[in-house]
User: Fold this.
Amino acid sequence: MARAAIYTVVFFVLAPGTNAGLVPWLITGWDRPVADLGVLDVLGVALIVIGLIAVTACFVRFVTEGVGTPAPVAPTETLVVGGLYRFVRNPMYVAVASMIGGEALLFRSVGTAVWMLLFMAAVWSFVRGYEEPSLAEQFGDSYRDYREAVPGWHPRLTPYSPVGG
Assistant:
C-alpha cells in the first residue's frame, strides 16, 4: 500500500496539479483584474476548495479501498465504489473541472473557461474510449452493475450500495 500511496501522490501532482494548477496559471499568471471580493470570487473560491477536497478524497480512496492508484499504468486491485463514487462515477474529473471553473471565475478568465471545456471534452473522450472498456474488462459484471446504477457526470441523490455490499 505504501508504493500505491507514493505513486498516487506523484500522479496527483502530475494530473490534477497540471490541469487545475499549471495550465490555469499559464493562462492567467494568477493575475486578478479586480481587487474587491464579490459574488463571483466567493463562488470561485468555493468551487476550488470543494474541488480540491473532493479530488483529494478520491485519490485517498484509490489507495485505501482500491489498493492501487488512479493512474492507468498502476490501476487498483478492486473496483472503487465507496466515498464520492457512491454518487457519481467520475468524481475526480468533476472535481478538477470544478477547480478550473472556480479559477475561471476568480480570475475572470475566458481562456481558463475554454480550458475547462477542453479538459472536460478530453476526459469524456478518455472515459468513453479507454476507461470504461478497461474497467468492464477488468471488473466484469460488478463494473457493469455499478455503471448502470451510478451516473457518470452528475450525482445520484441516494448513495449506491453494491449488491451484497
Observations:
- The helical segments are 2-28, 39-64, 91-106, 110-139, 141-149.
- Residues 2-149 form one domain.
- The mean pLDDT is 94.
- DSSP finds five helices and no strands in the chain.
